[in-house]
Amino acid sequence: MSKSMTLEDHFTRLHPVRPEHEAARLLWQERLGPELSAREDERKAVINRAVMHTVATAAFITALVFAAIIAFGFQTIFPFGIFAGIVATFIACAAVWMPVFTMKSQTKQLVVGAACEPFGFTYQTLHQDFSGVSSLRSLGSWVNANRSVVFSKTDDAPTPAFDRLKAVGLMPTYDSRKFEDLIEGVRADAAFTMVECKLTQQQGSGKNRRTVTKFQGLLLNIEYPDRFLGRTLLARDGWWSWGRKNGMQEVQLVSKELEDAFTVYSTDQVEARTLLTPDRMERLIALERHFKGSKLRGVFEEGHLTIALEAKDQFEAGSIFKPLMDPARYIETLTEIGLICDLIDGFLTREWYKDKI
Fold first, then answer.
1. Which InterPro entries does the record match to this protein (predicted)?
2. Which pTM does this prediction carry?
3. Beta bridge mates, 324
């Protein structure tokens, strides 16, 4: 979208039009826009300080490396001396970029939180608070005060989605997990939680040891007013195989296109086909398409619909290196939240919900 587009231009492009959009427009005009505008000078100053410090530090360490090369010869210094210089620059500059990270986190909280508000939802970044960290000394003090957090490999799961997906074999093995961007609320009389999750695992040994991302994406849990009669699992075709376990059988979907795209197993064939109608499956595909995701999978069990979607970082509310007043930050988040609403509405406002299966 062009930077010259006005707020009204952005809202005109929002589709579909939702009743919450009018409140969202007023919220931007009366509160969010002025707040972001007031922070713009601070954003520039924080980034300039970090850049200037980094440039000066890099120049100083580069001079030291060249002096070492002149004194001891290139063959002696290369490659370990140059690598050491890069590492030293990174360590020396890490703390001065903390205020930039803090401002990025605060901007996300403002923008995404404001976008959630007209829908009656709440948002938390789940980021650590690095306020006051701007030097190596203050960073050291923060680490000492938060040692249990820094050295922990596991965050508490802020949604039941993780444990439910793990219990049915829809999450990979991992060594550590991290969560951020928690959205909670009620839609169509159903409580839901959604969070971003990243699972990592150490592979190899010695010099070949590396950290591998096993999963990065969104976890969504929707609480239904009634319990399901059976258990139904679905996943994108081609990467996952459940097999005929625990009385589950493969479900034949009514659409050949969906049949080729998804693998579905259930303990109740009738309920599974009632749940996974073509229009509802299209809601899932639309969510996947917008978030540029893959390997969508989920489980219907007891009173919950739980979904995992592998995707890169979402709900970022734009770059901290761009002006804060760009309405595109807000509009993109409203669009993402709208897709979640579409998915919940599609599963909870149909005849099967009203009449009870």
1. DUF3137
2. 0.84
3. none
